[in-house]
Amino acid sequence: MAAGGLAGLLPAQTQLEYALLDADTPQEKENLVYQYLKKMDSRERDLTVPELGGDLQWLNTAGPISLHKDLCGKVVVLDFFTYCCINCLHLLPDLHALERQYSDKDGLIIVGVHSAKFPNEKVLDNIKSAVLRYNIVHPVVNDADATLWHELEVSCWPTLVILGPRGNMLFSLVGEGHREKLFLFTSITLKFYKERGQIKDNNIGIKLYRDTLPPSPLLFPGKVTVDNSGEKLVIADTGHHRILVTQKNGHILHIIGGPSSGRRDGRFSEAAFNSPQGIAIKNNVIYVADTENHLIRKIDLELEMVTTVAGIGIQGVDKEGGAKGEEQPISSPWDVVFGNSISGTQEGDVLWIAMAGTHQVWALMLEGGKLPKGSDLKKGVCLRFAGSGNEENRNNAYPHKAGFAQPSGLSLASEEPWNCLFVADSESSTVRTISLKDGAVKHLVGGERDPLNLFAFGDVDGAGINAKLQHPLGVTWDKKRKLLYVADSYNHKIKVVDPKMKNCATLAGTGEASDVIGSSFAQSTFNEPGGLCVEENGRLMYVADTNNHQIKVLDLETKILSMALPILNPEACDVPDNLPVQKDKITNLPKLPKSAPVLQLPSLTVAPGQTIQFLLKLTLPPDSKLNEEAPNSWFITAEDNTWLLQGQCLSGEIKDISCQIIIPFQLPRSCLSAEAILAVKACLYYCSKGSSACMMKGVSFNQPLQIASTNQGCLTQVELIHVFLTN
After folding, report:
1. Average pLDDT of the chain?
2. What is known about its subunit structure (predicted)?
3. pTM for the whole structure
4. If you classify domain 6-211 with CATH, what class do you get?
């Protein structure tokens, strides 16, 4: 057993650390580590790590791994982490680089020991999502009860423990920023034990979780925002390392970056991001928190160009700032929102940044101006606005003396009496406010009074400190109702806060991590929602339901949560946006058999620009199956009203009829008639299971439209249900 846990390493390793400070050359450092290993290896009794319990759950492996059997003969790096922790995320690039340099054939294995901070992080499915989201390719064990953590007396996240080939503890590294030591200790340990013939080159049974997943239009979308018109959505498709600009019906207008991570400015097709999160749009300009590149990027939709406006591409440790944006190192920006300086004449002349990596809120001056309790600043300057840089839940009248804990979401309420920034402070499980008059940082809901207690989380509706949240990642202000909505991420809920009364209540979600579209907000479910936004008129809320890989749409007036926003690639559409309908496209659509029934639907009152979601549910006769090789499809026609089809996706494949098919349709902004008929048709090929006969069947749904002059401004759903009968 490990006598005294990591404390047993402390005397010898502390001596080594001091000696390394005095060493001048790499050779001297290597010799010091080599001599240290000789001393540790000759100890009468190894400091050994206890075996991991056989009942623990493993990821990225073919089965459970034994430290003392399967990993005998390997140098093992144990990474004690929890997936919410920004410091743990900062360590991952170092581990990725180490894995690229040394494989299991070389004798090195990294094992992630997930030791949860929050209850939600103990759930295996949630750890699976994190492993995929952060591209972790080494084995991970879910030590949900922190058994090994306690056995070794680990005290903080992240902690690395380096083991020799007998499971003997050799080094520990606490916190982030030890890349040089990690590589030095690991390389010399491999060399030392190879010389002694104790390193084995056998393969470990790695089976990556990511290889078992089907493709998805979105992958862990972190944030979503809507422009002032309510017609254009911007989605941070975080797992695909790209930004999507879509119409409100899901039709893609621009794909910027992706699908692989990278760091490149330039045309949309050339640009590259690395796990982008926060986004803000104004007119035709989008600003992006390019989180894992440690950059703020600018997207110009007119020029179709991406540029860098803040950050140098590597993680910064500066907690003051003040340099010109592109010369100023920054650390893991997680959200951005437009704001106004107190002396500026231009609307939106400041970009506020939730700087999760340094536990602060920063500002990028888009024009010259002045911040509360600050001096005049030039255009382009990027600097700290609030937060000392200490990870705390500390409120203070002086913004630089306040403390945040991984701020991850921002929203602006510029109107009186609020005139503040709302901050989702994830690691303190609170929502805080920063006054834009004097910079004072105040508590709104969640957490507790002790600024050093970052474990005051839960799921409790209530007022002020009596309300409890669990790692909230997003906030958005509803100007119409004067309410704040919170993505209470680890409670899998959307909460609503009345900032006047400090009341916090559940708006949507049951608290279960799943994907259910219920008949009401209260019956619907989410899975770690990371961001949300409300359109200017206050009707629709869009939620980045991160672990469900969806954008969900909530109607705040009817209290109905609609189906997830379908993301339709431009190449899937027969008609490009804003172009007249091409005659040859219509003639190329399939012809239904004469026997196909025509079903008349009740008339629907709609408005110009309104979105209709047709929900198609088809059922085959008993003992029949869809011929998946045949061209099964849906398509839309509008005889005598082809103006309706301008800019629409006119057809799509039907690959699976076991679930509802979503067909989005947005009425043109300019309607040429007060009445029209839209036909939604489906053509299927299916076979009887008992014979080789294959049939072609079809159905047509005729939808009369009454087009009103007033803008309804909401999403309408129409169910299209048909059961095909046996011949």
Report:
1. 90
2. Monomer.
3. 0.78
4. alpha beta
